[in-house]
Amino acid sequence: MRTEDIDQVRTLPLLRTMAEHNLSTLLQGAFLQRFPVHVELIREGEPADFLHVIVDGQVELYARYRGRETTITVLNSPSCFILAAVMLDRPYLKSARVLSPSRILLIPVESVRSMFTIDNAFARAISHELSFAFRGLVKELKNQKLRSTIERLAAWLVRFNSEHGLNNEIILPFDKKVLASRLGMVPEVLSRTFVNLKDYGVKVEGPRITIGDLQALQKLASPDDLIDDPAS
């Protein structure tokens, strides 16, 4: 890896607390690579060869069954995937593909497992990532099981608008098909749900979504930190 690449990846949450010599050892077999949109990075059922860390960009995790496909989640930088398969030496339970041009750090699984037993700070960072991923899964289950389709879409719009500091105008960062799958719907249901949100001041023009009455949308979504707050 180039010196400037090493300087950048050492600031990643997973790596920034490591001892300098251990970080150098970990990165010896790693490489930072650029990927264009739609490239499939990993495939469910295959063995884990690398730990993937998103340095820049956006990645979709998805799964297939009997010809059906669903989006599990969409990850932004700085995120890593799929850590559980790496640590347990198990097959991937999800596939991953690039949603926007991305730079991804690939670290061989043997290096990750070895360094886990050597560097205490790295081990703590891995434990934090795994715990964070588990809590995210529980929140997603609560979101899917406790909310109706219109409540899920409203909650996503409110959260996205807040997280990105937007002025009630959203440009979707990915296709509506991905959003539908991410929220546990088929595209036709998402379209009907957007129509139902007109009563709450939501206007859709292609990828542009305007929130005309944020207060009404927030009341419908009823945000809950134990579901919607990514930091909780």
Overview of the molecule:
This protein has ten helices and nine strands. It has helices at residues 3-9, 20-27, 83-88, 109-116, 120-146, 149-163, 176-182, 187-196, 214-221, 225-228; strands spanning 31-35, 40-42, 50-65, 68-76, 79-81, 95-108, 169-171, 202-205, 208-211. Strands 1, 2, 3, 4, 5 and 6 form a six-stranded antiparallel β-sheet that branches. Strands 7-9-8 form a three-stranded antiparallel β-sheet, covered by helices on one side. Helix 6 crosses helix 9. The radius of gyration is 19 Å and the shape is elongated. The two termini are 35 Å apart.
Portion of residues within helices: 40-55%
Strand content: 25-35%
Oligomer: single chain
Compute the number of helices. Answer: 10
- Domains, number: 2
CATH fold-level name of the largest domain = Jelly Rolls
N- to C-terminal distance: 35 Å
Radius of gyration, CA atoms, in whole angstroms: 19 Å
User: What is the CATH architecture annotation of the largest domain?
Assistant: Sandwich
Summing up helix and strand content along with how strands pair, one would put the structural category as alpha+beta
List the secondary-structure elements in sequence, H or E.
HHEEEEEHEHHHEHHEEHH
What is the average per-residue confidence, as pLDDT, rounded to a whole number?
Answer: 95
